[in-house]
C-alpha cells in the first residue's frame, strides 16, 4: 500500500515551462485527501522550489531540497539539514574547477551567486534571484553544495577529472544537462527522504517515486515503486519499476490517475 509519493520537479512533475499544471494540482489534492503524503525531492534550494510552486507549503506535505541536504516538513515547520560541505572544501573545489571553464553557482539566502552569465543562469531567472559576483567571496562556513554550469565540453572535462581523481570528501554528478553538482558523498535524495519516512514510520515498500535524471537514481531504485519519466536518462529507466509519459505531457499525473491506490 502506497503511503507516500515523492517526485522530482524539473523534467518530472513540472511542465516545459517549469510550472505545475492545474490538472496535476487537482490530482495531488485528491491523493492527499486519501491520506497519501505527497512532496517533492529536488536539487533546487528551498527558495527556488518555492518560486517553482508558490503555494508549495499548502499543497505538499514535505520538500526534500538540495538533493537531500535539507528536509522541510510543512506539517510542523521542521527544517532538517544534513552533511553540508565545509567552506574550505568549497574553496578547494572552486580553485580546481574554475580554471577548467566551469561557471560556479552558490546558494545564498534567497538568491544564487554566480560568476558569469550563461544559458543556465538565464534559465534560472524564473526561479530565484541571481547576483553576479566573485563567488569565492560569498563562501560561508558551510553550504549544501556547489554547482558548476557550462557548455557540454566544459562539464565533460570536469566530470573526467572527478572520475580520474576521486576525492572521498565529495561526489559530483549531473543534475541537469547543463549542471554538475558537488555534494557530500553521504547525501542523496533518498537519504533526505529516509529521514522524513522514519519520522512518520513509513517503509520503503510504501513509497512511490518519480524522476528523470541521475540525481534521482537512489530514490527510484530504492523505492517500493520507482517510476522513470519517458524523458529520463537510460540509467534511471534501467533501475525503475515502470516508465510513464513525458513531463511536458503531464506524465506523472497520467500515471497517478490510472494507478490503483
Write up what this structure looks like:
By secondary structure, the chain is α/β, with parallel strands linked by helices. The protein folds into 2 domains: 4-82 and 187-258, HAD superfamily/HAD-like (Rossmann fold), CATH 3.40.50.1000; 85-183, 2-Layer Sandwich (Hypothetical Protein, Haloacid Dehalogenase-like Hydrolase, Chain: A, domain 2). It contains 11 helices and 16 strands. It has helices at residues 9-13, 22-33, 46-52, 56-59, 87-97, 119-124, 152-164, 189-200, 217-222, 234-239, 251-258, and strands at residues 4-7, 37-41, 62-65, 70-73, 78-81, 85-86, 103-108, 111-114, 129-132, 142-143, 146-149, 171-176, 179-183, 207-211, 225-228, 242-243. The strands form 3 sheets. Strands 5-4-3-2-1-14-15-16 form an 8-stranded mixed sheet. A 6-stranded mixed sheet has the order 9-8-7-11-13-12. Strand 12 and strand 13 (179-183) form a beta hairpin. The chain starts with a strand and ends with a helix. The mean pLDDT is 92.
CATH class of the largest domain: Alpha Beta
Write out the CATH superfamily name of the largest domain: HAD superfamily/HAD-like
Number of domains: 2
Overall pLDDT confidence = 92
Radius of gyration over C-alpha positions, nearest whole angstrom: 18 Å
SSE order = EHHEHHEEEEHEEHEEEHEEHEHEHEH
Which band does the percent of strand residues land in? Answer: 15-25%
Q: Largest beta sheet: what is the strand line-up?
A: 5-4-3-2-1-14-15-16
